[in-house]
Structure formats: structure tokens, C-alpha cells
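Ticket reopened. Same input as before:
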Amino acid sequence: MITVELPNVLCSYTEDNPSLVLEEPCHTVRDALVALGRRSPGALDRIMDERGDVRRHVNLFVNGENVRFLEGLSTPVQSGATIFVLAAVSGG
Amino acid sequence: MVKRTGGTSSKISHAGKAKRTAGKSAKKTTGTGPRKQEALLLVGTMKGAFVLRSDKSRQKWRIEGPHFRGEAVYALLHDTRGDLPRTFAATNSMHWGPTLRTSNDNGATWSEPGPQTVRFPADSGRALAQIWQIAPGRATEADVFYCGVEPSALFESRDGGESWQPNQGLLNHEHQPKWQPGGGGLCLHTIVLDPDNRRRMLVAMSTGGVYRSDDGGKSWRARNVGVRAQFMPEEHRYPEFGQCVHKVVHHPSRPGRLFLQNHWGLYRSDDWGDSWRDIANGVPSDFGFAMQMHPHDPDTVYIVPIEADIFRATPEAKLRVYRTRNAGGSWEPLTKGLPQSGAYENVLRDALAADSFDSAGIYFGTRSGKLYGSRDEGATWTEIADALPPIVCVKTGRAVSA
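Engineering reply: fixed in the latest deploy. New output:
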């Protein structure tokens, strides 16, 4: 079981639910995002582009670590882990 | 401080401020409902879209917004071909990417963003960066729309904008690997349809140049003969393709005659783009972005010259719209009501627009967030709004009450 915490701006895609619990087995961050996409394709479109790349100004954290500095989408996740989806520091 | 010489500066009032707030989920934005015989101004900025409404006199404007707070809105369209009006907005969040939103009440409320409908095929290796243009299909095809996007590609919808398919002829064009991004990105920004010949259409991109299809979009040929690429070595300045075309316009009553604002160069074609000739007769610079056709007169075109690519500001710090009324034979500056000193402005490719009233309204927005309008075809101008976010798109419409 993996929990995905979404920022408020994406909750319109999840019936205002900021916290999604994924019951299906997920071994990596990619697995979890694929599962998220089955529940909410719109939310996944905002996190990843159609090539499957995480958008440049989106950060994913597992256990407090940015997966960009781990193994990216191949970063392992253990049952009970929480993935936080956050907007990166950017803007203008 | 720029001295305003706008005369009877248009009065604006704020109404229907969008309810969305930063960090709050995207709810429908609200505004006042449609009114009979409304003139609409749709203004896309780097931080959202504004909808301005006026009666037919277009003397006073009421401003609503920003819709899509914090998102860049590079493309807008108000379409009235069908039984009900439909308005489109291409929004782009720096964080969460591009979406296409629609309104069925003249821009008062907007659809929730859903799954991305304009998307590249998985095997293309490309991802949508931005929608640069939303264009209606022909008058008799009310459910047909086109999108020009970054990276350069053309998408078509045949169901009123619900679903979109990429044009395969352009997607897989042999020139595609050599198209290079300009300063704004590698974008297909111009879509021109032949109103009479359903098999003919033309697109323009930066860079890449002009391409035309004569077989309903199956195949495309570069149409850039005579258009220079100033940024190439001198002996290669007229390539088959690769030009940085900024905008192409035509009048539907004379569709084969095209006008082109280039990255250095002002051109006209009388043969649907088969050849181009220079018409920079009397302009302070032939560099610029914006170009707008007069809605009723196929000989009249508006531009806003910019000094240079390395200094993208109005020449001599004067904000001047230039107009030709003889198809490029000569150009005249239109300055009454516009600042003629200290105005280091820039007007981008889709930030100059015309409405369809008998006395055509001409409008433009600047990178500095000023919105100007003329109710007399450019003879006099008033400042409609100031201090908006940087304006990247201005479109017009006429609201039709249910």
C-alpha cells in the first residue's frame, strides 16, 4: 500500500481528495504513478508529460528525499511509503 | 513615467473576479452572464486571462479576471460558428504544464481541466510544451478546430474540441528534425485556411517558415521563396525552409494574397505563398511580430514595427502602429493617443487584433501590460487597461445571447 499526497491545485482531478491510497502492489515510484494514472489520468498528466517524463518543475519526494537525487522513477518504494508531489521552486 | 496622451481614456471596472486562489484546487471561475450584442476582448497574459466586455460603442470596458491565475495564456479563441458560442483558452502552468479549457458562456466560466486532450503520440518522442494558436475550421465546419503547438505540430479536432489528432504529414515531415526553436520556442503559431478550397491550408512556424498543403493536410511543401533568414550565413539567407516567420495573415475574400511579418522582413504573396516579395515600404523597421488583417478590407493590414532582434522595443521609443491601405505599397504610422516618447514597448505575434464591427476596432497589448484600443480603425487610440501582467495574446469576439 502506497499513499500519494497531492498539492491542492491537483485535487480537482481527484474529487478534492489530496491523499490517495494505492492498494495495488507498487515496487517503484513509476509503478505508483502508473497506478495513480489509472485512478486519475488528469492528475498524472499534470505530473508527467506524454513521454513519461516528470515535468521539469515538479518534485517527487519519498521518505523526505527528492527522487531526482535517488533513482528517479525507478526509486524503490516500500509498502506503507508516502510519495509527496510538490511544485518546485520556480516562477516568474 | 510615460506620458499618456490617450485623450478620453477608456474607463474600466472590475467585476466577477475569479474565485480561484493560488494553491486552491481549480474550481469554475465565475463572472457575470452574457449580454446581448456584447463586444468581447480576450486578453491572455503571462499570469492569466482577462475578459473585457463592452456594448457595441466600445467606449467603456468592464474587465473580468484573471482567470487561470498564475498560468500563461498564449492562445484564445471565441467561436460563433455553431449554435452556441464556444470560447477556448490554452493555459500553461509553469509547474503542471499545458491544458486546453473551454467556456460555453462567453468566457464567464470555464471548464475544469481534465486529462490532456492535445497530446503527442507516444512513439513520437515529443511532449506538448505549449499551445500557441487555436483556430476555427471553415465556416461550414462548425465542429472543426485546429491547434498550433510547441514543439511545432498541427492538431485537428472534428468534434468541437473534445478530442484532437496530430497532423501526420507535418508530424513526420522530412524537414522536421531541422526545425529549430526561436526565442519563444519551436512553435507552430499560424494557421491559415483556404475558405474555398477544403484541401488547401497553410501554416507558419518559428523557425521552419511557411508550409502549405494542397491535399487536405496529407503532405506539406515549404513555401518560403523570397523570404530571408537574416541569421544565416550571407550566401544561405534564402533557404528552402528554416526561416523565422512570425505571423502570416490574409483576408478570406482574397485568400491567395498573403502578408507575412518575418524575423527581419515584411512580405506579400499573391500566389498562396509560392513566392514572396518585399513590401517594407516606409516602415522604421521590418522586424516585428504582430500582424493583423483588416476585417473588411483585403488591402489593409496593421503591424507594430520593432527596432531589432537584439533590441526588441518600438523604434525611437515611439509606440506606433503602422497601417497599409494599399496592400503594402506604402505604410502610415498611427500614433494619435499612443505615447510618442519613452515608450520602449513590444507587441507579440498574437497581441494585435481586430473586431468585426462596421467601424473596425483594432486592439493590442504590450509586454509591459498595457492594452490599447481604437474604435475608428486606428485613427485614434485609447488606453483600455494598464498594469496587467505581460500581454501575449489579444483576441476579439461578439457575444451572442441565448
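The CA atoms of residues 30 and 73 of chain A lie 5 Å apart. Residues 2-87 of chain A form a domain with the Ubiquitin-like (UB roll) fold (CATH 3.10.20.30). Please confirm and we'll close it.
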